[in-house]
Design goal:
Blueprint (H helix, E strand, L loop, with lengths): L1 E6 L5 H9 L3 E6 L13 E2 L7 H5 L5 E5 L5 H9 L3 E3 L3 H8 L1 H10 L7 E4 L2 H10 L4 E5 L9 E2 L6 H9 L10 E5 L5 E8 L9 E10 L3 E13 L4 H6 L5 H6 L4 E8 L1
Parallel strand pairs: 1-2, 1-4, 2-3, 4-5
Antiparallel strand pairs: 6-9, 7-8, 7-9, 10-11, 10-13, 11-12
Helix pairs in contact: 3-4, 6-7
């Protein structure tokens, strides 16, 4: 195969090395300047991934473009229309990821049990809501660039969420808005599988992420410090959750890994 990897931080470095070791041709584009020395001398790189499209296309069905990041879904859809094999996501997949209120409403329509979700375009709207309806909430920003600000409130009156919203610096990404979700106590559990454009590849993967910075459930919440995962006995949970979205992914031409986080 001939693989062109495109990402910000070269998160799939191990995959690129494995593909190369198995004899496939690999080139990588790394957008973040501080990460461009990753895999130096180990994998071929390019400073302009668009200039490599003919290199990919000349491999025919063996040419693959692999996107690492969310938010390039529309571009991926266009490349597919141009005849490229693209793995990563889609415009529809991006919306599921960044428009949290939309994703929750869609899951509810499919019969999944969802938490009450309230969307806000401005912080003052959210602060007013918290004053009028104090409670324990989870704060999630719609922009992927602000995912590190997501916060699970611990106070029953929402004062911690209010304090966070009042003191965060303004950024252009704030225009995407945010949601407040009713806090649900339980075990956070994910279910994921690759969607090949037509169907999910089985078996699905069940995962439990360790979010705290330290062991023993101590420290600040992070994006992810480690994960326990298994493919065993995943069928029942997959069919009751992630499998329900398969027709929508097929309709929108999605191709890539899809993970659904739940509270059990």
């Amino acid at each position: 195969m001939r693989v062109l990897g495109i990402g910000n931080y070269c998160d799939l470095a191990a995959l690129y090395l494995r593909l190369s070791a198995e004899g496939h041709e690999v080139k990588v584009f790394i957008d973040a300047p501080l990460c461009r020395n990753i895999l130096n001398g180990m994998i071929a790189k390019t400073d302009d991934w668009r200039s490599e499209l003919q290199w990919v296309k000349s491999a025919g069905g063996e040419g693959i473009i692999l996107f690492e990041n969310v938010s390039c879904g529309g571009l991926q859809d266009e490349l597919r229309k141009d005849g490229f094999n693209v793995i990563g996501g889609s415009a529809f997949g991006d919306r599921l990821e960044v428009d949290r209120a939309y994703a929750q409403s869609l899951l509810a329509e499919l019969g999944l049990s969802t938490a009450a979700t309230y969307h806000f375009s401005q912080r003052q709207e959210g602060l007013r809501f918290l004053r009028e309806r104090p409670g324990r909430y989870v704060l999630k920003f719609n922009s992927p660039d602000l995912a590190h600000r997501n916060f699970a409130g611990g106070l029953a009156d929402g004062r911690d969420i209010s304090a966070l919203l009042q003191n965060l610096p303004d950024t252009p990404a704030d225009e995407a808005g945010f949601v407040l979700m009713d806090f649900i106590d339980g075990v956070e559990m994910g279910v994921g599988a690759y969607f090949d454009g037509e169907k999910f590849l089985r078996p699905a993967c069940l995962d439990w992420e360790h979010k705290r910075f330290f062991p023993g459930d101590l420290g600040e919440l992070t994006g992810e410090m480690g994960t326990v995962a298994t493919f065993e006995n995943s069928t029942l949970f997959f069919e009751k959750t992630l499998a329900k979205i398969e027709p929508l992914l097929r309709r929108h031409g999605h191709c890539g890994y899809v993970n659904l986080n739940t509270i059990v």
